[in-house]
């Protein structure tokens, strides 16, 4: 039988990320994520519930998250569920906790505002990388009075080419990850 363990969450960091390293040197970052759900009750009253989720990030993703994330910052996390079980030392009872192992993250909003309602629009929406996020520029508006964006009629519009990273010697589509 096939199985799938995939989680996609958008929420706000509940605390600054905590980074530590395994004895072999692998980075591990723990962070909390608050995910809001808004709904209307049967009587029409607007309600909101908040779910707090522990997220664990590993490797380069963990290092980038620890470097750029702060409490209140909106974040997209893609990963998988993990169930940890243990015996409580004080009571002797079996305990368990469901958490998320983040495999991919995207920063939402802008670095400057640090928080907000989540969602993008700040110019920093991108997956993590070795470099800090760069402000993306918008294309210039066509001069007043030009129709069709300033291109000749009858020709299809061409999609703009993505910016080229000067540190790479290959095109973006040739990168094997």
Strand line-up in the sheet with most strands: 1-3-4-6-5
Structural class: mainly beta
Residue windows where pLDDT falls under 50 for at least 5 positions: 114-140, 146-152
Count of distinct structural domains: 1
Radius of gyration from the alpha-carbon trace, in angstroms: 22 Å
The CATH top-level class label:
Mainly Beta
The amount of beta strand, in percent, is 35-45%
Quaternary state of the chains: single chain
Mean pLDDT: 76
CATH topology, by name, is OB fold (Dihydrolipoamide Acetyltransferase, E2P)
Number of helices: 1
Amino-to-carboxy terminus distance: 29 Å
For the biggest sheet, the summary is: 5 strands, mixed, barrel
Question: How many β-strands, per DSSP?
Answer: 7
Question: Topology as H/E string?
Answer: EEEEHEEE
Report the CATH architecture. Beta Barrel
Shape: globular
> Helical proportion?
under 10%
Q: How would you summarize the topology of this molecule?
A:
Elements: E1 7-13, E2 18-21, E3 27-40, E4 46-58, H1 59-68, E5 74-87, E6 94-107, E7 126-127
Parallel strand pairs: 4-6
Antiparallel strand pairs: 1-3, 1-5, 2-3, 3-4, 5-6, 6-7
Entry summary:
The protein has one helix and seven strands, in the order E-E-E-E-H-E-E-E. It is mainly beta.
């Amino acid at each position: 039988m096939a199985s799938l363990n995939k989680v996609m969450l958008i929420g706000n960091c509940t605390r600054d990320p905590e980074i530590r390293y395994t004895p072999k040197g692998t980075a591990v970052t723990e962070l909390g994520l608050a995910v809001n759900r808004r709904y209307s009750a049967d009587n029409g009253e607007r309600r909101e519930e908040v779910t707090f989720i522990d997220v664990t990030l590993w490797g380069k993703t963990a290092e980038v998250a620890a470097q750029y994330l702060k409490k209140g910052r909106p974040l997209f996390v893609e990963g998988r569920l993990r169930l940890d079980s243990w015996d409580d030392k004080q009571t002797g009872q079996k305990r368990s906790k469901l958490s998320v192992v983040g495999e991919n993250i995207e920063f939402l909003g802008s670095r400057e505002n640090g928080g907000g309602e989540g969602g993008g629009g700040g110019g920093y929406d991108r997956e993590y990388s070795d470099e800090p996020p760069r402000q993306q520029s918008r294309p210039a508006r066509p001069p007043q009075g030009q129709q069709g964006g300033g291109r000749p009629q009858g020709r299809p519009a061409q999609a703009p080419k993505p910016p080229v990273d000067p540190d790479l010697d290959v095109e973006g589509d040739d990168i094997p990850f």
